[in-house]
Design brief:
By secondary structure, this protein is α+β, with helices and mostly antiparallel strands. It has a single domain (about 1-465), classed as Amidase signature (AS) domain (Amidase signature (AS) enzymes). Helices cover about 35% and strands about 15% of the residues. It contains 16 helices and 15 strands. It is globular and about 55 Å long.
Length: about 475
């Protein structure tokens, strides 16, 4: 069972296709590992292995031939606790929803199931939204590289489950950095796709492009595999379209020659800790070794901070504003503040933010006329103590809101561009440091091919899964 846990998702899928392992045996291996490991990490607070075994048995009866089993062939997949799985709890990390069971799986989960996924657990999240995974229902998720540190968020449970071997694949979603920050903190890989690539759960704001669903895995090839299993049209999500003609997996080895790479440690205006600047700058040697032309620079992000804060508040108040009437006393203070900001800001504030978002999109499009990829850190500081609510200060700058510290991801959200997040090295404490690879809209395949080459040079994927550590340094 330990040997099976250590395999990549792609390798386990091949075993499933060949009939050397059954989906139920894969579930048994996961359950054994989760029981032995996840008490320390707390990445999977909701598990339903018996239901998953029933689903796996039905799947094998319905699809007896390997050719019928889809991209994932019966692979167990962990689902973020903001997404519905039929019959299971979707708590959103909130006491308001702690016992709420979903009547049906949402669109993203149904797409995965259609392609052979077997959900078996829900991954921990912050309450309703946030960049640090803790809540009053399930507690905090701890970083497997250092159990005293944050796993990031809001997909922190997904990333920690992957890093510690409690998942081969896990779903995530991203509004301000929720796929990217935890991937950098846990040494895993994620893709924030272009809006419309992956269907969202029957969205209350179906035309909003800020929030996307995306794949998370221990390595780039597994992210490409999961992306192939997630992509497609959904009648309830008007941004979606049919999958690309050629799969992301097929194009993974098609690395473009003579890539033009731009590097920015801070998007031209953000505080970033010196060690993160140094680590990410040093990582550019891997791009140069591939023959890429590396320069410094980025699009002009003027106005992006205020624009995102306004649009996020507008979205959260639209989605959750009613909770302040019905359950205000059970909503976390930071979320109350964010909702109230949305309720109290003016129409003029939102109009200005929309105009600025449009200007930023066009500046980014112009930037990518002369560059293929923009590289920047996935977080401005290394994983912080798990008992913090959020970092109070970065470099010499105070954080005035609970999401200031993820500005380096949420400002990128406004461009609508796809982003691959992956580790670029280990800090002096032995903790992962991550980068964002950002490309023009619909360039996911190019980014994944580049990420695969960088991953091979960095070598962190080969260290996963890791045994959870009390401190960052590996035992000697």
């Amino acid at each position: 069972m330990t040997d099976l846990i250590r395999l990549t998702a792609s390798a386990v899928v091949q075993l499933l296709r060949d009939g050397d392992v059954t989906p139920i045996e894969a579930l048994d291996a996961l359950e054994h590992h989760v029981l032995a490991t996840d008490t320390a990490v707390n990445s999977l607070p909701i598990t339903f292995f018996d239901d998953a075994r029933e689903q796996a048995a039905a799947f094998m009866r319905r699809r007896p031939g390997p050719a019928d089993r889809g991209w994932l062939a019966g692979l167990p997949v962990a689902i973020k606790d903001y997404n519905d799985v039929a019959g299971q709890i979707t708590s959103h990390g909130s006491p308001i929803f702690a016992a709420t069971r979903a009547a049906e799986s949402d669109a993203m989960v149904r797409m995965l199931e259609r392609h052979g996924a077997i959900p078996y657990a829900k991954t921990n999240v912050p309450e309703l939204a946030g960049g640090h995974t803790y809540n009053t229902v399930w507690g905090a998720t701890r970083n497997p590289w250092h159990l005293g540190r944050s796993s990031g968020g809001s997909s922190g449970g997904s990333a920690a489950a992957l890093a510690s071997g409690s998942a081969w694949l896990a779903s995530g979603n991203d509004l301000g950095g929720s796929l990217r920050t935890p991937s950098g903190y846990n040494g895993t890989v994620a893709l924030r796709p272009s809006p419309g690539r992956v269907p969202r759960r029957r969205p209350a704001s179906p035309f909003d492009p800020l929030w996307v669903e995306g794949p998370m895995a221990r390595n780039v090839a597994d992210v490409a595999l999961m992306m192939d299993a997630m992509t497609g049209f959904c009648r309830n999500d008007p941004l979606t379209d049919e999958p690309p003609r050629r799969s992301f997996t097929e194009r993974l080895t098609e690395l473009d020659p003579n890539l033009r790479i731009a590097y920015s440690p801070d998007l031209g205006q953000l505080p970033v800790e010196p060690d993160v600047r140094a680590m990410t700058a040093d990582a550019m040697r891997h791009f140069e070794a591939l023959g890429a032309e590396v320069t410094t620079g980025c699009p002009d992000f003027t106005g992006a901070y205020d624009t995102f804060q306004t649009l996020r508040a507008h979205l959260l108040s639209a989605l959750h504003g009613h909770l302040l009437t019905t359950d205000r006393h059970r909503v976390k203070d930071d979320i109350v503040w964010n909702i109230e900001r949305g309720l109290n800001q003016s129409v003029g504030d939102v109009q200005h933010a929309e105009r600025t978002r449009g200007e930023l999109f066009h500046r980014a499009a112009d930037f990518f006329e002369h560059h293929d990829v923009l590289v920047c850190p996935s977080a401005p500081l290394n994983p912080f103590p798990v008992d913090w609510t959020y970092p109070q200060r970065i470099e010499d700058t105070d954080c005035t809101t609970y999401i200031d510290w993820i500005s380096i991801t949420f400002m990128v959200t406004l461009t609508g561009c796809p982003v691959v997040a992956l580790p670029c090295g280990l800090s002096d404490e032995g903790l992962p440091v991550g980068v964002q690879l950002i490309g023009p809209p619909r360039s996911e395949a190019r980014l994944l091919a580049l990420a695969a080459a960088i991953e091979n040079a960095v070598g962190i994927a080969d260290q996963l899964p890791i045994t959870p550590r009390e401190t960052g340094k590996a035992p000697s």
